[in-house]
Amino acid sequence: MNDFLKEVYWGNTVKEYLIALGIILGGMVLLRLFRKTLLNHLKKWSAKTDNKFDDYLVMGLERFGLPILNFVIIYWGIHYLHLSEKISRLVTTVTTVVITYFVVRIILTVIRKLLESYVLKQENGEAKLKQITGIMIVINVAVWVTAFVFLFDNLGYNVTAIITGLGIGGIAIALAAQNILGDLFNYFVIFFDRPFEVGDFIVVDDKRGTVDYIGIKTTRIKSISGEQIIISNSNLTGARLHNFKRMEQRRAIFTISVVYGTPLEKLKKIPQIITDIIVKEPLTNPDRVHFAAYGPYSLNFEVVFFVQSPEYNQYMDIVQDVNYKIYEAFEKEGIEFAFPTQTLFVHQKDSQAYRQATPAT
């Protein structure tokens, strides 16, 4: 038996092969035990905490950490043997590539989960998850480029030339595509600063409509007349933008005109009549009702109140209901609304003298 163990094949004894195999199998058994015991305890512990960061770490450890440890064990077992320089270099290269791949996957997964957690905390978070795709494209490119540079450096290549080339190429690309890059960076501004979101009604210069989609380069708005308006992100972040979705209340102001000759007692009743109507209306907060001015043909009352809703249709429904009730109350009180009139006074004597002086035709 000892003679068999001492036999040499490809530069290693049978005993050394068995030890290497034992290292690999023993390590995998330990990892399986770790997965069934300690990892399960970590899952239960992370489920009890309020934050999601530890959940993502445990998930990353299970999905990517354990495969990395498997490759480390295999690498350790193989390197126990006496390998030729070529085979040793090949094993090292394959192991480095695999570990780098899984580490990058861990980083990208954690970043994506953190972004999803950040978005889901916002209003209508489920609908905003699509916006993460554009950001993850940029993050993926940045992380993978960094990973390749790190990988080449660990494999013994001179990365100085690569970094220099990337720097020169990056400057050239930036100069050639500065508008695109500007829109891209402004996309990050829109995502994190949130001046508007999908579903918001906004006004930009003379354009108005509902935000339909926020892309990496452009944002699409569905106008009130039905067509789609496409505006670059740079123009949006640089413009004066009115976001009506953030409005908590709307202010209603209008003038009511009554005829000259309305009795003083009824004039004094008008502010209270209108105030009572507004108070009884749901979602309204009266501000003021005043006899504001003497008009050319009417006595003008100014009415101001607030509607505690940002929805324009609901605002108009309330204003309409207030107008109906004011009209009904004025009919009961016998108060007449004014309309444009003109009174012409003719002096009878002057009129006859004019007719006498006018020659007949």
Outline of the structure:
The protein is of the alpha+beta class and 361 residues long. The chain has helices at residues 2-5, 14-36, 38-48, 53-79, 85-120, 125-128, 131-154, 159-176, 178-193, 233-238, 264-280, 312-333, 348-357; strands spanning 8-9, 12-13, 201-204, 207-214, 218-223, 228-232, 241-243, 250-258, 284-294, 299-307.
What does this structure look like?
The longest helix has 36 residues, at 85-120. Residues 353-361 have low confidence and may be disordered. The strands form three sheets. The chain has a five-stranded antiparallel sheet with strand order 6-5-4-3-7. A three-stranded antiparallel sheet has the order 8-10-9. It has helices at 2-5, 14-36, 38-48, 53-79, 85-120, 125-128, 131-154, 159-176, 178-193, 233-238, 264-280, 312-333, 348-357, and strands at 8-9, 12-13, 201-204, 207-214, 218-223, 228-232, 241-243, 250-258, 284-294, 299-307. Helix content is 60%, strand content 16%. It folds into three domains: 2-176, no CATH class; 193-245, SH3 type barrels, CATH 2.30.30.60; 250-333, Alpha-Beta Plaits, CATH 3.30.70. The protein is α+β, with helices and mostly antiparallel strands and 361 residues long. The chain has 13 helices and ten strands.
